[in-house]
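Appendix B, record 7
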Amino acid sequence: MRTTSLRLTEGLAKRPPAHGRASLAPVDADRFGGMAADALLAELDTWPKPGLVSPFDNGSHDDMDYGTFLRSIDVLRPFYAELADAGGAGADMDELRRIGRLAEDAMLAVTGGANTHRGAIFALGLLCAAAGAARAERSCLSAEWLARTVAERWGRDIMRGPIPLNSHGSAALRRFGSGGARAEAASGFPHALRIGLPALRAGRALAGKEEPARVHAFFALLAAMEDTNLLHRGGVEGLRDARRAASDFLLAGGVGGADWLAHATTVHRRFVARRLSPGGSADLLAVTIFLDRLENGL
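Structure tokens (predicted):
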């Protein structure tokens, strides 16, 4: 498995730019790629996240664990850097998809076929490309600018592009008519901007620490969004119950409540008992973390 992924990543440094313009400075591309991978690591380490893999347990999953996610994050890092370089060189959506498919192949190789980060390859990859474009054009690296760049530069092609038949999001689209990750990205990540970022900053004010702040942001995203992974696993009823549980947590004060950790852990156990896994919310938490860190220059 590892040999296959290394062959894919070794090719990144050797392949010349295919975008018709000069590449982004390597130091910037590597920085953006590293920040995307670090955002995934911060999301993975956040606990409790109901139903999801963490350093403490496997959540609702039998086919992946903490180590599986670490291997996936490690192999994705250079692909995020290449996507940033592609954005800085004016790549179209076809080129971004080509790199994304290579990233997905590398992910599947090191995870034994487990889909740890397909949605995050898509969402964070687009934002890395937007960050590359911002740096090449000497524009600001604000969350609003990056999200708008994704929507304006690639949004139409995102919605027109092929729908993968084997993803949970596409299954939910066919069954329930849900827009999922494609619609979120094409419209400029409104949940990350309007829900995730304010909740992350509110969580910091409530708890004074980063991990509880990320938990607060996760529950806010879960309460607000139509998570296609929940639709896939639990149907409309599972999605409704999950959103209600997240809303109840926030109404009780979120991470500002005295018993917030026990409350969140109880929700986690209920999700595991029902095999619910809000992977879409996890992807948007990683997006939120990435945008927050990039905007603040961390």
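Remarks on this record: DSSP finds 13 helices and no strands in the chain. The radius of gyration is 18 Å.
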